[in-house]
Automatic annotation (TrEMBL):
Protein name (database record): Elongator complex protein 1
Protein family according to the UniProt entry: Belongs to the ELP1/IKA1 family.
Keyword vocabulary terms for this entry: Cytoplasm, Nucleus, Phosphoprotein, tRNA processing
Residue ranges annotated for the ELP1 three-helical bundle domain, each copy included: 690-773
Gene Ontology molecular function terms on file: tRNA binding
SUPFAM superfamilies per the UniProt record, alphabetical: Tricorn protease domain 2
GO BP terms, alphabetized: tRNA wobble base 5-methoxycarbonylmethyl-2-thiouridinylation
Subunit structure: Homodimer; dimerization promotes ELP1 stability and elongator complex formation. Component of the elongator complex which consists of ELP1, ELP2, ELP3, ELP4, ELP5 and ELP6. Interacts preferentially with MAP3K14/NIK followed by IKK-alpha and IKK-beta.
Compartmental location: Cytoplasm; Nucleus
Domain ELP1 N-terminal second beta-propeller as annotated: residue spans: 393-669
Keyword Cytoplasm: yes
Domain ELP1 first N-terminal beta-propeller: 1-352
Principal localisation: cytoplasm
Amino acid sequence: MRNLKLFRTLEFRDIQALGKPQCFSLRTEQKTVLIGSDHGLIEVDPVTREVKNEISLVAEGFLPEDGSGCIVGIQDLLDQESVCVATASGDVILCSLSTCHLECVGSVASGISVMSWSPDQELVLLATGQQTLIMMTKDFEPIMEQQIHQDDFGESKFITVGWGRKETQFHGSEGRQAAFQVQTYESALPWDDHRPQVTWRGDGQFFAVSVVCPETGARKVRVWNREFALQSTSEPVAGLGPALAWKPSGSLIASTQEKPNQQDIVFFEKNGLLHGHFTLPFLKDEVKVNGLLWNADSTVLAVWLEDLQREENCTLKTYVQLWTVGNYHWYLKQSLPFSTCGKSKLVSLMWDLVTPSRLHVLCQGWHYLCYDWRWTTDRSSGESSSDLANVAVIDGNRVLVTVFRQSVVPPPMCTYRLLLPHPANQVMFSAHPQKSNDLAVLDASNQISVYKCGDSPSVDPTVKLGAVGGNGFKVSLRTPHLEKRYKIQFENGEGQEVNPLKLSLLTWIQEDVFLAVSHSHSSAQSVIHHLTVAPSETDDEHGQLNISSSVIVDGVIISLCCNSKTKSVALQLAGGQILKYFWESPSLAVEPWKNPSGFPVRFPYACTQTELAMIGGEECVLGLSDRCRFFINDTEVASNITSFAVYGEFLLLTTHSHTCQCFCLRDASLNSKCSCKEIPFYNIFPMSSNRRSSKNRRKAERKKHSLKEGSPLEDLALLEALSEVVQSTEKLKDEVYHILKVLFLFEFDEQGRELQKAFEDTLQLMERSLPEIWTLTHQQNSATPVLGPSSTVNSIMASYQHQKTSVPVLDAELFIPPKINKKTQWKLSLLE
């Protein structure tokens, strides 16, 4: 139940360079962008907006001077410290960016349509103008050349002995002639460019090629192995599109199919058979799919679409959609609309090879965009008793809301759905504690739809019940209603048109105030915008949000969090610095966030999740990085945390060992909080119950005595618990000894001394307490003789009955005090 949330945008535009951009590539080591144009190559640093290198291919004769040349591929070669460029005219060029030296390592007379390198950069594949495939080594030594069209199915051809073949089956009213009907093939789509498409599997062992068959005119997908042996050919698929992308994990090959009334993304297995699909939110002949791209960890599929010309003088758009899958359901998480004319026309896009959730986009006019997303769970704050524990999930132009206080249903089912006119990009709940069930949705048209809980005079058609509704079912749930849709009025419409996701980190901080962040395209600065509701005299459902004020911050803001009680706002910069934003102040000041010692707070690593919490009366910033490192202010307190949440005065943490730990922040001091967090980090106290199965754990719990107050076996239960504590502590000596050695080895002497002193004090306390506890218990249970001059029949029977109830024979061992072995060497003498 997660969404993709944009937290950073990096862009540069209007680079002074010759020609028009055609394609681009990334240099991961140098963190620069290589852009190929009809004039040559240009290397740009996207952070400093500085042109590092510029190489002309026209001057060397590899591209014509009239601008008709085309670069079909660029690949940065790490081990050779150079760049490989392929031109449509057939030249393969090796460029050294350090010396600007150009070398033509090969030429194909018929031209090159595709150049594709294997993921390990050991092989390069060229698709030529004569419909052949050429495979070469990284040193450009030819291995083999084969025809791109093959009559054979491949080595993985299916074997059948004839059982159940079509000729022997019953064909109903069609008769036996149906078994011998010739299969008809549909030709390629009208907008298909008939160019081959190549994609590699993530491990580089196989590659797939999509081509138009000259005999049937339809597209086919063929799979080849690394040794250039044909493995399989796809089954006939009507309306198969040219886009092709092999999932890096290796399970599926994505392509497109146009059906009579819809457009689908279809998936092939390696054997060529179809295996699943999902439908795009467009009609037939409405859009064409230019490309499909999987991100590095196979969690997000990017779909590049473009409107088809249906009417004259109509405004055409290009879309980039990000799809994810969960519970066999495909969700549309982000939608980026671009124009098809001017500077915002899309030229190329690609995922980052190192950061899985980073998308690079190249537009006309030398305009480059880089988007960083992160996974987040959009939920209500839960600060008040009226909060319904809402969780919102984006699914295209629908927002699926699950109310966990009243219904727990698995996604994609939900409690109710919000229907929007455009795909949603971000969901936020109100920060006001008493209005935490209200939510707002930012869609792809930069319009905010506000839904509020409360009495509505009529049924809202944009709110539909989900898994809780049905015929004759009385729903006790009070669903929200649409209050108004607000259009954001930008000061510069052109800037928003070039960058469709101009605003990020949208936060509903007050009834009629939103905070949003935008990033400068010319410098490393961010702008905090105050979006306020414009007054309106009509009750129209459409309103307007004006940017009432803006504050410029030096640095790139990557997260924004607020405390609904203290109304504090914390900003995190890309370098880890934490700033406090006084949004209610007339001057709108921004200053460094300081710890109790008065020093500015700075996270050692950028955190993907930040929260504010009160610890010992001090407001602190909590952060969790993508490497599971947990920080309180600028102190790292754990490195095995997978998630955290702040609920009032409690902090909840989940760890790698699948445990949930809860800490009370009310009586904790900041210093003690930071030191005691070393316990879950070093895992000193393992939870033995997690190592048992649930069945055995329930058996063990039934055997234990009850510690409930007033229970007849309360004393025995306390003895048993104390005995288990002593035995567990005794077993920890070896573990503590090894931890002390590791701390000393890595020069954490001070922490080691604190741990050794604390464990020694614990053992001494146990040694002093054991004689007092078990001696007293023995005296109480070795009661005075039941028989005697003052005894009566009733007292004798009552005494025997009490002994029978409180001291079972099986629990006699509880009165034997546990032993502490003083000979066990657990101390580290170097720390004394």
